Amino acid sequence: MVGKVYGIGVGPGDPKLLTVRAAEVIGSLDILFYPSFGKINMALNIAKPYLNNRTKKIEMKVPLSPPKDKFKAYYEYSGKIMSYLNEDKDVGVLCEGDPLFFGSFINIWHNIRDEFKVEIIPGISSVMSAFSQIDEYMAIGDDSVSIITANVINKVIKEKINSSNTTIIIKIGNKFQKINKLIATMGLSDHSIFLSNIYSERQFISKLSKIKNNPTDYFSIIIIKNNNVH
Residues 61-92: pLDDT tens digits? Predict the structure, then answer.
């Protein structure tokens, strides 16, 4: 017998936004892996109300860059997960937001899905939850939407903004100045909203044009509404 692995989306930040299925599984696991980026253990903090004391918790320390170090870390953690599965242990892997929407779990999933049974438990992504916090809609009717990361080159970002009614740039991190400057040159700063740590105690929301400092939080997004697109 072998165990089963669960990719668990824990949502944007509020433990109350987990699905019933996610809460059930978190409370029943033998082993729980959770990602950490520096000193941030967001996924584990969200899941804490549902944890079982007997569950063994294992931190996944994953560097954000360079890519080769990141993928090496995920490969090594995948091996550890498979070892537990071969011992007939049920293993959960937490992921902020949704596991398959720019989720860190995708890197684990690619390594184990051909050999072991995997259940994906969807979660509410920061993108989907952000609009409820700014009293705005993402799209209606035939509107077009683009979702990209801040690592994309400026030319592509500009093309997406110019062709989309709504553009969401995620994983801002240390790319804030680059993105802020680009949006300003397009005259859209007053039509853009910056959000970080949505639905958590550290939540911050501001019109982009009013931000004077240089926020570098990894869990940040910028929403641009371009009313010139028809």
Answer: 988 778 888 899 999 999 999 999 999 999 99
Instruction: Judge whether 173 and 220 are in contact, CB under 8 Å.
Output: yes
Give all strands of the β-sheet with 166-170 in edge-to-edge order.
Answer: 145-149, 166-170, 220-225, 192-196, 204-207
Chain-centre distance of CA 45, in angstroms?
14
**Sign of CA pseudo-dihedral 93, 95, 100, 104:** negative
Residue that is last in its domain, among 109, 124, 139: 124
Q: Are strands 91-95 and 5-9 parallel, antiparallel or unpaired?
A: parallel
Report which secondary-structure segment, H or E, holds 11: none
Claim to verify: residue 133 and residue 114 sit in the same structural domain: no
Distance between CA atoms of residues 26 and 134, nearest Å = 31
Range of the domain at 119: 5-124
- pTM of this structure: 0.92
Report CA-CA distances (Å) from 205 to 15, 78, 85, 215: 20, 36, 41, 11
Pairing of strands 145-149, 91-95: unpaired
Per-residue burial over 38-55, b = 16 or more CB atoms within 10 Å of its CB, e = otherwise? eeebbbbebbeebeeeeb
Largest Cα–Cα separation, the chain: 60
The verdict on 41 and 79 lying in the same domain is yes
What does the pLDDT look like over 154-167, one tens digit per residue? 999 999 999 999 99
Q: Of 102, 124, 146, which marks where a domain is finished?
A: 124
